[in-house]
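Something for you to look into today, if you have time. Could you write out one complete protein record for me, on any chain you like? The space below this message is yours for that.
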Amino acid sequence: MNDSSERFTPPSLDFPYALGGPAALADFRCEPEDFIVDEDLGFSPEGFGEHLLVQFQKRGENTGWLAQQLAQAFSVREMDVGFCGLKDRNALTSQWFSLYLPKSENDGEKLAQFQAQQSNISLLAQSRHPRKLRRGQHRGNHFHITLKNVQQKEELTARLTAVAETGVPNYFGEQRFGRGGSNLYWAGLWFEGGENIRNRSKRVMAQSAARSYLFNKVLAERVRLGDWNAIKFDDEISVSGPLWGRGRPLAGESLNAFEAEQLAGYESWMLGLEHVGSLQERRPLVLKPENFQWTQAGDVLELDFQLPPGAYATSVLREIAELQNKSGPGENPG
């Protein structure tokens, strides 16, 4: 490890709250059934084509692991297995996968054999489709979340109402940055220290984390200013924040100057993201969960809502309660 890497410390992930701080303390993920995620594909398989689409429910298993198991079982390359988003391991989740299998012989028999070898996976549906599933292609995800041992404050009901009516800041969740900010550590070594990260997986995670952190920094300042959910500088695009990359900034002159001011000191990260091929994009600043509902019985609070692809349920939960995570790292966006 060189001297520059030893000096680098990941930046703080303590982003400000928009609604006044958590209105309760609660236990989170006491068991996988406390975090249920059902993927809404948004379309029906066409019933024909070179790809086999399968929908599984899985308990305590992550998306990448299941994709690898499918590739091995059906003797295809991992790149020939498609899915729309990552789902968390510490949960009960359902989602679709696609497998490139031009010959449709014995699909049902092979799937039965595969499932027989898995204890935490259930096959829900299967069909044929002419195209591979791509990341972010689905409509969104439905969440049913159970918080236990809730120690609430008087404002909890008002807080839940505010989340339903106004939404929350659309932060990238802490999971994006790795345990203890480890993905940002690698980003710092790469973009500030000039270290060559040979592990492809670490490079991808570092690139994604750096881009996400810069977005969160801009959003955090908008939250501090109280205009995170309003138009700024008479610029309609100001209800979004920057996902940095190459190309001309998409914001107007005043908004671009404001965002550049928030990112001062991270010029090496911005330049690095341009060099690795990221493109200028924008992400909404406001995350408003759809069909947000809740029920409470004693010290148990149950939440139901839908989120679009790439949004974090924990970004909703952090505005409601301080969570005592009983299972380990949190969820992936899916």
